[in-house]
């Protein structure tokens, strides 16, 4: 098994910490797509019983990060081309809607919050952390939109979007594609459009930004998961 960074869980918050650790090793790629999630083994690594592991696996399934086979065994989710196409189209739609609602409400404080996330992203060289901050940027746009129903839908799907994004960014980085520079540049432009309060232009750019991944979809899915 590859999950070498799992550590014994502290007593008091067994399920939340178990979930947090399992989610971390999945998003980091330490447990790649299709990797088995064996309850007994994970319980031993985390120093807990199988009960919190099982509950954490159920929550990972709900978030779209794990799947259960007919046998009852769990594994890390593997994205099919259809899965990715659906995730990308949904992400583009939700984020365009968020930008449309956030732009008219944009304040200096809101822009500063987005810029602070970009500043952290610019400093990190860790792709998993970069992907987390990329998702945090889009989380903040949703928050600034002030649309409760949109926020609930985004919350339900954000984990699988983060997993897919982290996986694809690692693949592109291995192919010597400058993921960070391109992402930081486009996100900076997004802040400028939100500051301008031009809702239609902000929404159109956000939809293009999120949808641009779909143009690379065939070759990204064909790229090897490891070198």
How is the secondary structure organized here?
Elements: H1 14-27, E1 36-37, H2 39-46, H3 50-63, E2 66-68, E3 74-76, H4 81-102, H5 108-123, H6 127-145, H7 148-174, H8 179-196, H9 199-215, H10 217-222
Antiparallel strand pairs: 1-3, 2-3
Helix pairs in contact: 1-3, 2-3, 4-6, 4-7, 4-9, 5-6, 5-8, 6-7, 8-9
Description:
The chain has 227 residues and is mainly alpha-helical. It folds into two domains: 14-76, Orthogonal Bundle (Arc Repressor Mutant, subunit A), CATH 1.10.10; 81-222, Four Helix Bundle (Hemerythrin (Met), subunit A) (Up-down Bundle), CATH 1.20.120.530. The chain has ten helices and three strands, in the order αβααββααααααα. It has a three-stranded antiparallel β-sheet. A hairpin with a 5-residue loop joins strand 2 and strand 3. Helix 5 packs antiparallel against helix 8 (179-196). The longest helix is centred in the last third of the chain and has 27 residues, at 148-174.
Q: From the helix content, strand content and strand pairing, which structural class follows?
A: mainly alpha
Q: What composes the largest sheet?
A: 3 strands, antiparallel
Give the strand order of the largest sheet, numbering strands 1, 2, ... along the chain: 1-3-2
Q: Briefly, what CATH class of the largest domain?
A: Mainly Alpha
* Low confidence ranges: 223-227
CATH architecture of the largest domain: Up-down Bundle
Total helix count? 10
For the terminal residues, how far apart are their CA atoms? 18 Å
Total strands: 3
Tell me the series of helices and strands, N- to C-terminal: HEHHEEHHHHHHH
The helical percent reads over 70%
Kindly report the name of the CATH homologous superfamily of the largest domain.
Answer: GntR ligand-binding domain-like
> What is the CATH fold-level name of the largest domain?
Four Helix Bundle (Hemerythrin (Met), subunit A)
Tell me the radius of gyration.
Answer: 18 Å
Question: What overall geometry do the principal axes of the alpha carbons give?
Answer: elongated
Count of domains: 2
| Arithmetic mean of pLDDT | 87
- Strand portion: under 5%
């Amino acid at each position: 098994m590859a999950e070498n960074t799992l550590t014994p869980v502290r007593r008091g918050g067994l399920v939340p910490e178990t979930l947090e650790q399992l989610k971390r090793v999945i998003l980091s790629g330490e447990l790649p797509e299709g990797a088995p999630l064996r309850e007994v083994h994970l319980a031993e690594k985390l120093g807990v019983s199988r009960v919190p592991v099982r509950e954490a696996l159920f929550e990972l399934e709900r978030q779209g990060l794990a799947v259960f086979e007919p046998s009852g065994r769990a594994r890390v989710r593997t994205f099919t081309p259809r899965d990715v196409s659906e995730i990308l189209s949904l992400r583009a739609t939700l984020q365009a809607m968020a930008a449309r609602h956030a732009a008219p409400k944009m304040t200096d404080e809101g822009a500063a919050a987005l810029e602070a996330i970009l500043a952290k992203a610019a400093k990190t060289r860790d792709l998993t952390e970069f992907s987390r901050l990329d998702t945090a940027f889009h989380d903040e746009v949703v928050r600034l939109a002030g649309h409760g129903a949109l926020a609930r839908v985004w919350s339900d799907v954000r984990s699988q979007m983060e997993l897919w994004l982290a996986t694809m960014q690692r693949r592109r980085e291995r192919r010597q594609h400058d993921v960070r520079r391109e992402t930081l540049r486009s996100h900076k432009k997004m802040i400028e459009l939100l500051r301008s309060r031009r809702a239609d232009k902000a929404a159109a750019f956000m939809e293009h930004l999120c949808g641009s991944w779909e143009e690379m979809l065939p070759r990204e899915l064909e790229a090897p998961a490891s070198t």
